[in-house]
Protein 1
Amino acid sequence: MSRALNELRPVYVAGAGLDRYRRISERSYVEFGLIAIRAALADAGIQWRDVESFYLGTALLGMAPGRTMIKHLGATGTSIAQVENASASGSTSFRQACLDVASGVADVSMAAGVDKPARMQRASDGSAGDLVGRALPPVAHFALLANQYCTAHGVTTGQMAAVAVKNHGNGAMNPYAHRQKARTLEEVLAPPFIAGPLTRLQCCPVGEGAAAVIVASEDAIERLGIDPGRCIRVLASVSRSERVYAPDADGDVELTRETVAMAYAQSGIEPGELDVVELHDAFSIEEIMYAEAMGLSGRGEAARDIVAGDFDIGGRCAISASGGLLAMGHPIGPTGTGQIVEITRQLRGEAGDRQQPDATTGLAHMVGVGAVCLVHILQRT
């Protein structure tokens, strides 16, 4: 019989590190990947030799990039594995680290994410193995969903764009964000339009970056002298793939609804108990749809709740306090791991100007090419 994370031994995030997400540069991924990894080690106060397993989430770097990177930390015999799961690569690497520690396979595991998109156009031939080439481009897909949702629920383009206004404002307070400029509603609504009602500032930037977290058991926290007061408990980890849904249903939304419901059941947490949420807001309409799927808003009500400030920092639940994918950025491989970094800092009370007051419980959500969904719930105990 399968067992959930909460039925195994407790798991904690003990260290977190980032390199700023940014436009593609001349830097090697090895350079900025090591910055994030070393930052996570320093944050936990441990050494590389203490890490027993290492999972690297990456979607764009090809074969075995982790080996090239971590050799600079020393040859310690650490177990290494690369994880590719599209936008959910970093979230999946975090889940694998949690499972290692929860099962007792390791006392200390590291989940990292790093990516650097190629400057040249990537091959896309529409063959059976070319999922992206055969699919409707994501921006077009979500533009169609935006039109459908706004028509069905009487939501204006201005209300939808308020998502981007909020998240760009949050990103302006985040030194690790790709976009660090607050935007007015007029700026967000200004051309160019990328697809349908989605303007450039309502679409996430894809650049380079890195994130890393240390996952540890209670035994390791005590043995290594890690400060238990800064360790954040992982209450739930759920990974699902799509099913066959009704013809009029959106697969991303239904998959999110199912996965989040399982995470709530696993953790014993209800929607109203969430203080911070980091979700897959690659396009502004996604935050609206996923907030409803998570039970944070009623059906057709999320856009109005956003305009009312319910999901602002200081509101009833801060959504995308990091700036989200829209402003923090979406370098693919590290995105999901970076969400865990943000939630960890929020629950520690270390988020600076972005701090959600009295935050104790957070949820991280990522989808990958619409086919997979990862949800984690964390809590300060």
Note: The chain has two domains: 5-118+207-230, 135-205+234-379.
Protein 2
Amino acid sequence: MKDTPIQDSSSDLPEETAAHYDLFFGPVYFEPYALELVKRIDSGRSSIVLEIGAGTGRVTRHIRENIPSSAKLIASDIDREMLAIAKRKLGHLDINWQNINALQLPFNDNSIDLVVCSFGYMFVPDKPKAFAEACRVLKPGGLLLFTTWDKLENNGASYTSRTIAERYLEEPIPESYNLATSMSNQAEIAFLLEDAGFIEHSIETIQLQAVCRTAEEAANGLVSGPVYAEIKKRNPAWISEIKVKLKNELAEKYGSAPMIAPMSAVLTQAWKR
């Protein structure tokens, strides 16, 4: 197995953006699905595990805790700032950190038992190649396990936030901002997997709850997202106005303290035979 990472800094986020991602989106959105993912791990067949798009390590920690201590865990991401935060948080654990592009995995054929990707494949520009790479490196009988977001309207707080944001933009939101919810169609996911060589797969919709201490905290976190950067360019004063509107609407729909909103994601398992 090769251990030389593919270097690509084209998608590096500023450190403050990565930190916000970890502090707000991590516990509210990603932690519940991290727990769902690791329920599907067969620890007895996970001696070499690769995580793609590890981000700030939200899922990485749970993987490490749910595989044998003797197993090798390679946690990777294309974004160095995300990995830097993950390393600081989880540096005490036995994890091999690598900066890797999902389109060019630096591993031999049939060398990995389990590939995990939590909310990462939506952003990969060449999905057929990414799934083909995952299939290539997996051993026969190996598992690809990943999550993608369901439709935006099935994720209450995010949908409310987007609806308010659109009132402040003269033109449609750039298509790049819709990538996060671009892989909700189960038939399309199944086609991509079968085309990549995964003959057996299971795809299910998992509905959970996004829980935040207060609606105000949720509004502050959501308004720090990328769509609002476009609004801030036009009129920075609008941001404070939007925070108040969003806080009030979230509180009315999902409670003020705590705020508990529905969220939905697609969880996929695909086996290499």
Note: The domain at 15-151+178-210+264-271 is CATH 3.40.50.150 (Rossmann fold).
